[in-house]
Amino acid sequence: TAFVDFTRSFKGADGTCALATLELEGVGVCVANVGDSRAFLMSDEGKVFQLTHDQKVPEKRGEPPTKFERSYLHRGIQPSRLCDPHRDRVCGLNVARVVGDKVGRENDVQTLSARPKIVMPTRAELEKLLGRKVADGEPFYLFQGCDGLFDVGTTDQYAQLALEMIRRGMPLSHVAAVCTQAAYNSGSGDNLTTMLQVVRFS
Fold it and tell me: What tens-digit pLDDT sequence spans the chain (202 residues)?
C-alpha cells in the first residue's frame, strides 16, 4: 500500500511511475509496478521472462472510455472529465496508473490509481519458459529500466545487448550504464535509468 499511501498524502502536482523489486532469499523476486517502467528476467541462454506490462491507456481516438479504461480510475470520477479529445491520454497522461500525480483545481481533484500490479514469478513458471529444470541457486539477471529506455528500444533489444556484455565478463554496473547511454544516443527524451542484479531461485 506504500504507493497508494504516498499518493494520498502527496501535496504536489507532478507524479511518477514507480517500480520496486524485492529479492526473497531462496524464493526469487517480487515486483510491484505502477506505470510504464519495465522489469524482466534473463537467463544465461538468452530467454526473457517479462515481469511487468506497460499500464498504458489504449489509443481510441474520438471514442468514449471503455469499461476497461474506467477500471483504472478511482470511483466517483466522471470519465468524460478525465479524457482529452485525442483519447490516448487520461488526465493529460499516457499511463493508466501513476504515483503522486494529481490533476484538477482546488477541491475538484482528479487522481489516477496508484495501486501497483504485483508479480512474483515461480520456479515452475521459469521452467515452463525455459523448457528445462532450474538448478538450485541458478543465476538469473534482473533488468529494471525507466520508460525512457523503451521509447526507443524493445525488451528483447536491451536483453540481447546486456547479455552480450555479461558474457564478455563486464560488470553489471557497466552493462547498465551502456544500456542507459544507448537509449540516450537513440534520442530518448524521457527518464533514463537502468539497474541490473543477479537473483537466484532455490
Answer: 677 677 677 776 676 778 888 888 767 888 988 878 899 999 999 999 999 887 665 544 444 545 544 444 443 344 443 444 444 444 555 555 666 666 533 444 545 667 778 888 888 889 998 999 999 888 999 999 998 898 899 999 999 999 999 999 999 999 999 999 999 999 998 889 999 999 988 7
Residue 91 and residue 7: Cα distance in Å, rounded?
15
Distance, CA of 178 to CA of 164 (rounded, Å): 12
Helix (H, G, I), strand (E, B), or coil: what is residue 46? coil
Burial class of residue 200, CB neighbours in 10 A (0-12, 13-18, 19+): middle
C-alpha cell at 105: 483545481
Q: How far apart are CA 184 and CA 190, in angstroms?
A: 9
For residue 145, which phi and psi values (nearest 5 degrees)?
Answer: -145, 145
C-alpha–C-alpha distance, residues 50 and 37, integer Å: 12
How far is 31 from 23, CA to CA, in rounded Å? 9
Who contacts 168 (Cβ-Cβ below 8 Å, separation ≥6)? none
